[in-house]
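User: Modeling request: complex.
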Amino acid sequence: MELPVVLDCLSDPIRLAIVYHLAQHERDGTELRCGDFNELSGKSNLAYHFAKLRDSGLMQTRIAGTNRLMKLRREDLDARFPGLIDAVLKSAARDAGRLQLVAECEVADVD
Amino acid sequence: MELPVVLDCLSDPIRLAIVYHLAQHERDGTELRCGDFNELSGKSNLAYHFAKLRDSGLMQTRIAGTNRLMKLRREDLDARFPGLIDAVLKSAARDAGRLQLVAECEVADVD
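Assistant: Request completed. Predicted assembly structure:
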């Protein structure tokens, strides 16, 4: 994980929104599915952003049946860049409305 | 100042190096001159990066004679994005060698 790559990854509003939503669900241990982000953008555009998030090291995906379940690589990130993700999420939360991070990103139950 | 814009601005290795050097001199109150960054890149490329840094709100410039003196807008940044710049600088410092932040960026005395 490289700092410029991670910062670049977070600088896109859609990827920032994805990270924001993953972070909101990390406390309860919920992984999110691709479909949980459909309000943010079109399917192929989301696939591109998911790939960027994986490649940069920000999130990981695991396959469960027909689902891809995503979560932040929080421990790795905090070890590598102490305080960075928290600071980004805190700033993002303050501007959540204007940054349109709070799309109606419904989280479906994962079977 | 908008979070995605600031993150994008910091995601470029040359701009990150400029910010890093400005931060190293903020304690002693030293402002830096354009010429202090000549080791990082060519003159016109640096001018482009300085403009991005100003436009994003990361730094400010004041004119003193024939010099442009630059410094981080640290107070504004810390008020707007608490902890963000510190976390970025801390991570940058850890990787300073690999990120080539420590070019022979000599700081000349400003008259």
